[in-house]
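Aim 2 progress. For DUF2061 domain-containing protein, the working sequence is reproduced below.
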Amino acid sequence: MHMHHTPADSLIKTLTFAVLHFSVAFGVSYLITGSAPLATAIALIEPACNTVAYFFHERAWARWGQRRGNRAAAAPVHSAAVQS
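Predicted structure tokens for this construct:
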């Protein structure tokens, strides 16, 4: 069953994921460094860097998909029917 998500649902999901991401980044950073201020800085900076990287990742995938689509459109169509 496919559930329809409203824009408000998407916003709530995004915000809860942001809290989850911050919490994981803080927890891992704190375990490694033992410093709450440093862990906080890492937990704030890492998601921002990840967001920028994701943007470029999406752009690269879009270009790759477009090139792949262009190759498929240019490929000759082979008939499976055997002619006698």
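The chain has a mean pLDDT of 85. This observation will guide construct design in the next reporting period.
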